[in-house]
Amino acid sequence: MKKVEIRSGEFRFVGELLTEEAPETCKVFESMLPLKSQFIHVRWSGEGIWIPYGDMRTGLDYENHTSHPAKGEMLLYPGGISEMEIIMSYGRCLFASQHGQLSGNHFLTITEGLEDLYDFGRKVLYDGAQDIEINLIK
């Protein structure tokens, strides 16, 4: 099982890639690593943080997709009626945009540090964008 590490300041999370459930999405995500960006708070989805990618497209289609990510689940929305993005739920979340409800590919689940995820999400909400780095654990 492939794992990734997500770091931001004092926060550290480890997640497992869902290579059987979302193989193409995992391949695209792995090609983006190491990923240095910022998580910002979602606008419409509730308790979630996201990385927007605008008009970028990867050629992905839907696989293992959902509109209701549970706490610690990461989705990659391949783009379409809204911009491409990665979203991570830190609590109650219904994936949506200004165009309405969306569905994204669930490709990663946080398995370590889940107890700190809500505090991290609230930090993003109240303190603004947070620098993050995501790397494959070897």
Question: How would you describe this structure in keywords?
Answer:
138 residues; alpha+beta; eight-stranded antiparallel β-barrel; two-stranded antiparallel sheet; 2 helices; DUF3830; DUF3830 family protein
Please, could you describe this protein's structure?
- It is built from two helices and eleven strands; from the N terminus they run ββαββββββββαβ.
- With 138 residues, it is an alpha+beta fold.
- The strands form two sheets. An eight-stranded antiparallel barrel has the order 1-2-10-6-7-4-3-11. A two-stranded antiparallel sheet has the order 8-9.
- Strand 8 and strand 9 form a beta hairpin.
- It is globular and about 35 Å long.
- The model has no long low-confidence stretch (mean pLDDT 96).
Q: Mean of the pLDDT scores? A: 96
Give unreliable regions as ranges: none
Note the quaternary state here: single chain
**Record field, number of beta strands:** 11
> Could you estimate the helical fraction of the residues in percent?
10-25%
Strands ordered across the widest β-sheet: 1-2-10-6-7-4-3-11
Instruction: State the separation between the terminal residues, measured CA to CA.
Output: 11 Å
Can you count the helices?
2
| Strand residues, percent | over 45%
Our Rg estimate from Cα atoms comes to 13 Å
Helix-strand category: alpha+beta
For the biggest sheet, the summary is:
8 strands, antiparallel, barrel
Succession of helices and strands: EEHEEEEEEEEHE
Shape descriptor: globular
